[in-house]
Amino acid sequence: MAETQGPRLRTIIARNQRWDLIIGTIGLLATTVGVLVLMLLFVDLVIDGWQRLTPDFFLNFPSRRPEEAGILSAWVGSALVMVVTAFTAVPLGVAAAIYLEEYAPKNWITELIEINVTNLAAVPSIIYGLLALGLFVYILGFGHSILTAGLTLGLMILPIVIVATREALRAIPVAIREAAYALGATRWQVVSDHLVPYASGGIYTGVIIGLSRAIGETAPVITIGALTFIAFLPPIPFTGDPPAGPFDWLFSPFTVLPIQMFNWLSRPQTAFHVNAAATGIVIIVATLLMNGIAIWLRSRIRSKLKW
Fold this sequence. Notes:
Layout: H1 2-49, H2 55-59, H3 72-103, H4 108-120, H5 125-139, H6 146-170, H7 174-182, H8 187-214, H9 219-223, H10 257-265, H11 270-304
């Protein structure tokens, strides 16, 4: 009996190894194709738009003359919207994840919340734009402003922050919790002094990846009324006559890099298409930098923490 089981077992192992090789090869090919397509598109953008990446391009306002047009109002608007998005999504998302993972009782209500959080991460971004148009613009009266855009994108990336934070907390060994409780620590002391510091690498990664997704979104900000042409900056606090308030910029009209790129692509002149290509380079580089920072932070924090 043992003599017949040996060859059969080796046959099963060999067949499984062949399938592992086939699946691994298919995955490698799929990844290679995706990376090559992205690289080709990026190289095409660089060839078309690199000559416009000058200091004047970043310091000039949009113009009807393509050789003088710049992205000053667009990149400033994107930066301010990202600030509001981060201040909205990060505290709320991290707090919600900590509650769901460490405090919430395991019942059908929390299971329903978890299912909805997971599903919200896959909702099309235009749905968030329609929600914000009704809630923030018409009901709360925030108008077509930076505050509305930041809150909209904050809601959009909120599920990403929650899921990433919960996964980071789950990755911490149970022994750390048990050791802290054995020494008399309260639940909040365990969370604040042990779990959050150990999970900070995963939390930072989720936050930055969420922000890198938000910076390239177009549908939600178009839905809430972002301008396609704007030749002024939001008011600087405590400047002007009369002086602007510290939060007046939150209610200023705005535009962002993807909308500026879309505006130039809709023009028939080739020179505007070159400007659009240069704007695309800026968006892609910003996204890659944010993802690179996330990877660097995660590796650096993990190298300092020893379980």
